[in-house]
């Protein structure tokens, strides 16, 4: 089984508690307005994924890909 590894992003430290967040996978894109709920969903996924903060301008918060 392939392992998910950190690929990049600004991190969750500066992300606002409320705003517009988007979780993207190869098959699904889901939007949230609460960062904590978005994070719970994000960490429940076991596939390549990215977490975006779209509140002011698109900013990659976290991205995970399969180890090669």
Describe this structure in words.
By secondary structure, this protein is mainly beta. The chain has one helix at 35-44, and strands spanning 4-8, 18-25, 29-34, 49-53, 59-66. Strands 1-5-4-2-3 form a five-stranded antiparallel β-sheet, covered by helices on one side. The mean pLDDT is 96.
Q: What's the short story on this structure?
A:
With 68 residues, the chain is mainly beta. The chain is 15% helix and 47% strand. The longest helix has 10 residues, at 35-44.
Number of helices: 1
Distance between the termini: 11 Å
Q: How many strands, which pairing sense, and closed or not: the largest β-sheet? A: 5 strands, antiparallel
Q: In what range is the share of β-strand residues? A: over 45%
Series of secondary-structure elements, N-terminal to C-terminal:
EEEHEE
**Inertia-based shape:** globular
Q: Averaging pLDDT over every residue, what do you get?
A: 96
Rg value: 11 Å
Pick out its properties.
single chain, 68 residues, 15% helix, mainly beta, 47% strand
């Amino acid at each position: 089984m392939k392992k998910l590894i950190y690929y990049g992003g600004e991190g969750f430290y500066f992300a606002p508690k409320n705003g517009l967040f988007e979780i993207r996978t190869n098959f699904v894109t889901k939007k949230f307005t609460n960062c904590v709920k978005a994070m719970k969903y994000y960490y429940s996924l076991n596939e390549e994924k990215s977490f975006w903060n779209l509140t002011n301008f698109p900013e990659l918060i976290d991205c995970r890909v399969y180890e090669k």
